[in-house]
Amino acid sequence: MAVYTPPLRDMQFVMHEVLNVTADLQAMPVHAEMDAETINAVLEEGGKFATDVLLPLNISGDAEGCQLDITTHAVTTPTGYKAAYKQYIEGGWAALACDPEFGGQGLPLVINQCFYEMMNSANQAWTMYPGLTHGAYAALHTHGTPEQKATYLHKMTSGEWTGTMCLTEPHCGTDLGLMRTKAEPQADGTYRLTGNKIFISAGEHDLADNIIHLVLARLPDAPPGIKGVSLFIVPKFMVNADGSLGERNGIYCGGLEHKMGIKSNATAQIVLDGAVGTMVGQPNKGMQGMFVMMNAARLGVGNQSLGLTEVAFQNALAYAKDRIQMRALTGPKAKDKPADPILVHPDVRKMLLTAKAYAEGGRALLCFSAMLLEKEHNHPDEKVRKDSGELLALLTPICKAFLTDNGHISTNACMQVFGGHGFIKEWGMEQFVRDNRINMIYEGTNTIQSLDLLGRKVLSNNGATLKKFGKLVGALVAEEGVNEKMAEFITPVAVLADQMTKFTSEIGFKGFQNPDEVGAAAVDYLRVAGHLVFGYFWARMAQVALRQISAGNTDPFYVAKLQTARFYFAKLFPETATAMRTARAGSKVLMDTDAALA
Asked: Most buried in the list 147, 171, 299, 380, measured by CB within 10 Å?
């Protein structure tokens, strides 16, 4: 079985030494009393839940999967999953960062972010059951009526009820304007929904008493395309006026998808057969509410790959220290053994350090993003709220796509460290690869994220939001530009930030003449932007480590951080040069290929 130790020390480093989250939190009235000790204590307990309760169920749950009774449409989750969920809600974990008005604990989002990272490391498929609820909760909290909030949010906050997002249909994925699910208005103000949805994560299960589906559908007079989509609450069981559960609604699981990974999460084919729903928000404005869910989910998916990257690294490192094969090229290191541990081999170290660098860079980015979301909603200064929201919008596709791409690279590298044993189920490494693979696909494929970044978030406002991030880089360069010890970390970031302006303008000009140029460059562009962001955070982490070492701190943690930073800038950051070159290759070599693809 795989092993896992919650990376509490690195979480504390990122939050308290790099980002100084307590100062930012205390500037917000809702978190004025928050301190580092509270954050650390909560996450320490959260780590115990992840390792003691969820981790032992990961491999067994993958092997057992979910079972559908086609007669009753009931889905049974793997052995131990229901008991684990009971512990989750009894421990108050579901309510961690939710609004106290609805029974939540009101803790900062960054705590929930780190807690979910640990649960994703321990068992991504299980974590998706409560994870989807957060997006549904956020959509209703933002766009629901007072009556809808009173009906649903208390139970969703407690975890007694879970939530889903129902978008995809058999004939359309990302292109939601093509959806056919219909919503017929009724005399009592409700709607009757008819249609089919697929790929609905946690769409049916036996963990909670009720499932609150948020469903996109069309009204009879809806305009065509995405402008004619409305959002509806469709509960599995109707809710009576007193909050008790009523009759079974006409929404059920018609089948379970047979998947490559996350096999213990019920990815359901959902049938709506005259199901009763109530509208969220305004008619034909459903994407406003759904985007709240989708953006939360995109950050959550990046966090899934961060969790898998971390746990894969830990297991590969432990194996590399124990497995002996061959001798080091520079001569025997373990002279009392017939061979050396494979950790002595340069390429094994490269694979391990790749995962470590991507995990630690991703952790810094996601904690920073969680704080932006917190500021957007709770900071007393309107300008801070606005700036935080705009910067978060820029970083969201990077969080989703860059981290999941990196997760794919890292989990595969860590499986490779195991050699043939990595291909065997009992070690758990091949499961990390399989589970991570969906993260690059759902909640908008990584190509869609790249188009969103380049087209919507950068070019649509002539790079204004990108310049906001550039100011952060500029401030760091101004602070450390004359520090020789920081040159190896600052110079690459400063150079890329300067190149990014010209690179973006060039792609934008070509795209104005031919939109296919944007499509051809987008994925490469996101990789470059991702490294700019990671480079900034790695430089900040190196800055803190250098200061601690200069002050006489002998904790090897800081030495390790500097070594990982040097590896990142030497071996991973240079990908930017290749990505910019391939982006500039243009669309012709892709689109002028009818004969090749005949």
From this structure: 299
